[in-house]
Every structure is written in C-alpha cells, then in structure tokens.
Amino acid sequence: MKSLWSNSDAKKFKGDLGKRVYTSRLLGANPELVLHGGGNTSVKTTEKDFFGDKVEVLHVKGSGWDLGTIEAAGFAPVRMDALLKMAKLDTLSDPEMVKQQRAAMLEPSAPNPSIEAILHAVIPQKFVDHTHANAVVALTNHKHGRTAVEEVYGDRVVVIPYVMPGFDLAKAVAKALENIDPFTLDGLILMNHGIFTMHDDAKTSYELMIQLVTEAEIYLSSKLGKSFSFPTAKPEEDLLALSEIRGKVSALRSVPVIACLDQSPEAAGFASRADVTKIATRGPLTPDHTIRTKRVPAVIGKDIDKSLDKYAADYAKYFEKYNQGETMLAPDPRWAVWQDKGIIAFGATEKEAGVLTDISTSTWRTITQAEEAFEGGWKALPAGKLFEIEYWELEQAKLRKGGSAPVHQGKVAIVTGSAAGIGFACAQSLAEQGAKVIGIDLSPEIEAQMESIGGIGIIANLTDDAKVIEAVEGVVRQFGGIDIVVSNAGIFTAGAYLENLEGKNWDLSMAVNLTSHQKLLKYTIPYLKNGIDPAIVLVGSRNVNAPGAGAASYSCAKAGLTQLCRVASLELAPFGVRCNIIHPDAVFDTKLWTEENLKRSAERYNMTVEEYKTRNLLKTEIKSKDVGNMVAAMASPLFGKTTGAQVPVDGGNDRVI
C-alpha cells in the first residue's frame, strides 16, 4: 500500500481541520481501506465559543459523510469535556448518547457526530484515523486471528476484542489504555472490525495507517505464497434468467431493484467453487457492512425460485432467533452468488447497487484470500453479534431518512427516438420520476441528451434486428432487466396524395413507424414478462382517428401501430404486461416545427401563431413535456389496471371526439 501524501497538495489545506480534511480524503480514496461511508476520523483543537471563551473541541466525521469527499462542514465540532464525562459513565443508551453529543456541539447545524466520537475523545493524540482495511480484517477474521495480529505488530498496537461500536467500544478502549502510555503505540486493532492509528501530526497518523496495513498485506502475501492467484472461470450468459432473478428479488423487497451482474473471470471463479455455499455465507468483513449487505448473501443455484425462497425463509428464522421486539426487514438478499455464473448486487437505485457491488467484491476477494492463507479459513462474527448491528437503532435511523421513493425508482426504461422532441420529453419525465432511462436513437445526439438526464444513450438503427437485439441485451446485462418500453421512434414522410405516392415513401414510413416498433416489442417482451409492473407505451398520432388527405404513408403506419398495441395488450395481459398507446396532436415545440413553418401553417387557417397553437377545444398549447408526463403516468401504477387503451393528448379535437 502506497502513501498518497503530497506536500504540495497538503499546503492547500490550512489549519488542523484542513489537514484533517486532506488526510481523510486520502484514506477515503483507497477502497482497500474504506468503502462508502465506512471508517471515521477526528482532530482535537482549541477554539473560541460564541462568548469568546476557549474550548477544547473534537472535530469528528459527521454521520452520513464519506471520507473520500468530505469537506470541513462534514466534521461535527463536539466539546471534549462533555465527551470525556460521558466516557466515565457506567452506562449510556444509544439514543441518550446521540442526544448528549448533539447537545455538546459548538455548531448546531453540523451533522450528527460519529457514533465513535467518545472513542476518538479517549484516545489522547491529536489526530485519530479509523478504517476497515481489508488486509487487517483478513488478519483478524480466522481461528488464530489474535495470534496473527501479535505476530505482525508485537507490542506496537493494543488488541481490542470485538465489542459493539459506540459507547461500549469507547469504554473498552479507555480501559485498555489505562495502564499504557498511548503515545508509545502505533495503533489499535479491533478484532473483526478494523484498525485505528493516531498521532499528533496529521501526516504521521495517516502514514502509520498505510504502514500497518502494508504489514498486514505483506503477512497475508507470505501466507498465500507467490503462486497464489484468484481462481477464474468463463461463465455462460443467461440474461433471461438474470431478469427472472431480479424480478424475484424485487418481489421479496417489495420495490424494484437494479441488478448488477459481475461476470468477470475472477467473480465467476468464486461462484464456481465447490464450497462456495459454505464459505460465502459465513458473514461479512466487518459488522459495519451488515447494515447495507445483511449478514450473508443468497446463493442461487439452477432453481432460482427455490434458492431465493430458501434465503427468505432462512432470513425469517434468523430474525425470529435473535430479535427482541424489532420489526423484521424485507427478507431479500442485497447480493448473491449465482453459482457458476458470477456475483450479483441488488440496489433500489443504481447508486445503491454500485455501493453493494463494491462491498460484495471486496468481501468475496478477501474471503478467498483468508480461506487460502489461514488454517480453518474465513471466520466472521457469530450471527447474534451481527444481528445487533443490522438491527441497531442508530444505523437503521440512517436508512429511514430518505423519505418516500419516486414512483419509478429502481425501474429500467427504454425510450426510442429520444434524442429530441417528444421522445426526449418522455425520457426526461421517467428519469425525473426515478427510472434508469436508456435512450435509443439513430442520431449521435442521443448520447449527450441521455447523459444530461442521468441516462444512457445508444446509437442504433431500430429497423436493424441485430442492432435492436444488441441494444436490448446490453440494457439487461447492465441493469438486470427491463420494466418500461416507450416506443416513440418515428418519421414524418413527405406528404403526397395516393395517386402520386412513391413506393419508397410508403416503405420508409412502414419500416420506421410500424415495423421498427414490432421489432422492439419482439426482443423486449421476454424481459418485460419478468419486469416489475411492466408497461409498454407506444406513441401514435391524432392521424389515426382523424387522418388528413395527403398523409397516407404516415397515417396508415400509425393506424397499424395502434392495431399492434391492441394485439400486444391481448397477448401480454396474462403475464401482467400492460400495453397502451398515446395519440399526441399539435405538439409544436419540436425540431419539426420552425417559426417559419408555424407562421405559414397559421396563415393557411387565417390565424395568428398563438391561435394556431391553441386551436383545440380547451384552447391550450400542447408541449412535449405534457406528452412526456402522460407517458410516465401511463407507465406508472396510476394506469395499473389499464391496457389496450388509446389516450389522446391533444387538448380535445372535435374531429376525434
């Protein structure tokens, strides 16, 4: 492990708190040390309070902040005297600890102090760093863990047996330091938990962390031997089964989830181990991960339903055995070992799935090393200890802060023809309501447009079967399934009366406005059948019910699309897949309508442009966003009992009515 300290960069951070911010970010930049909010740091300073009196203050990482991106505002300033008084109490409940720590803060608007604030206070050095370094956890999490720690570090560290984080751990550390000069130590090793380093100099405290973790890495490497490598395998791809797994896990969690599959050779190698069911389910690297990952992953075999039903039943038994009045969480796995295939992480959002991917990857890699390096292999904390963390009120409170989820959160949506106009508005509305949107368009602009709303753009010709298959499979491969399809791609061919209609005009309209939609449905339907509240919304036209002369190729294609919707609704209803069509009219805020075109059309009707825009029964202007919002609603539970419907968005058209 290399030190990332840079003298030139360090100079940019002023004062004790500035140096604390800098070295905290260095720790957070290394996933081998901390992952996604893990670990905590502090610095002790003297400051003036509101009245100008000097106060000894502990700036400790605030709850909810990530070391990798932390700012000065992410540290909670807590009066040292209050923390040290709390450390001398015989008992202190978690809610009372949180309350008293907050009451002792100099800045009321700062985040809640870390649950380890008292522990940081009882360590006398100015700077204190705490991580959950993989190598150190590998060193502690086996049958002879303490012996290994002592062999590596000797008397340079104090070893603390596992104690529940918070007040109890602070008391244990204080007791361990009573008869020792803490300034002679390089750090503390918390069994099954992590490592602390401390010093009066920020750089030294940080580099002690790097040094001690490096020593653990060297020891681990010596045990593994030079010939060690992670086993690898080449899995067979089964995207339809992946979408089935995602659907089942979503049902267990009662919300849609994103499923991220790692089929790298090493992940597949772990999943292909003969003993994977045994070693993968012993427990997490550190109890802190349990709040995100639960105690163990699911192991999914050939029978997906049976495997996941077993996980849910086992989780219920685990809860019944250890609960003391808590309410059981949903019995879904947060990650899974898919035997012979790879590792899957499940998140209610793409961000959560990414976090769980990182943690699960760190977990199975470290387990693999510990299994190979130490007699008896990987050994985590007992299930009862891990239950205490998973259902710890202070940690559960963090997860409840998010509020209600957007209506389409966790859903995966494909929107075609979404580089501009109505298609982009549909994609934007779905994204605003929480969906992960993948836009497909022939225009190169699709990539930048989708990026602007947090989506993904794919350049593809939707009349090409191979390109459609490639795009659809790419979506499933990345996110685990498909829930919403908005088929909007279209073209308005040149107007011509039937006697003058050229064959290429007709053929092009049919290919783009009808056949491309049929191709998209053909290749997405198998995945939609495994989707969450799956819905198809086709974008038709007012011309279906009120055609105009000279628009045969466009109107007939859209009429065919409407018939395609009706047939699809009949075929897919038994699988719970809804299919509806929307008929917009007079949507003038698209590239098709320039100011010149609008003016010319308005003059043809002897109207002003504004009168022309609102020439409907409600005298209202129809905009792309109005259509996008309606499409998002039609894909939502609001239309959950509607299929085969034709919905106009036209302000009321007397010819249609």
Tell me what you see in this structure.
There is one protein chain. This protein is of the alpha/beta class and 657 residues long. The protein folds into four domains: 7-224, L-fuculose-1-phosphate Aldolase; 239-390, Class II aldolase/adducin N-terminal domain (L-fuculose-1-phosphate Aldolase, 3-Layer(aba) Sandwich), CATH 3.40.225.10; 412-587 and 622-649, NAD(P)-binding Rossmann-like Domain (Rossmann fold), CATH 3.40.50; 592-620. The chain contains 25 helices and 18 strands. Helix 6 (134-140) crosses helix 9 (202-224) and helix 9 (202-224) packs across helix 15 (350-373). The radius of gyration is 30 Å and the shape is elongated. The chain starts with 6 loop residues before the first helix and ends in an 8-residue tail after the last strand.
Q: Mind telling me the C-alpha Rg? A: 30 Å
Find the structural class using helix and strand composition: alpha/beta
Terminal CA distance reads: 72 Å
Which percent bin holds the helix content?
A: 40-55%
Strands, total number: 18
Remind me, CATH topology of the largest domain?
L-fuculose-1-phosphate Aldolase
* Integer count of domains: 4
Question: Mean of residue pLDDT?
Answer: 95
What would CATH call the homologous superfamily of the largest domain? Class II aldolase/adducin N-terminal domain
- CATH C-level category of the largest domain: Alpha Beta
Q: How many DSSP helices?
A: 25
| Largest sheet data | 7 strands, mixed
Strand order of the largest sheet: 3-2-1-4-7-6-5
- Measured by DSSP, the beta-strand proportion falls in 5-15%
Query: Residue ranges: pLDDT <50 for 5 or more in a row?
Result: none
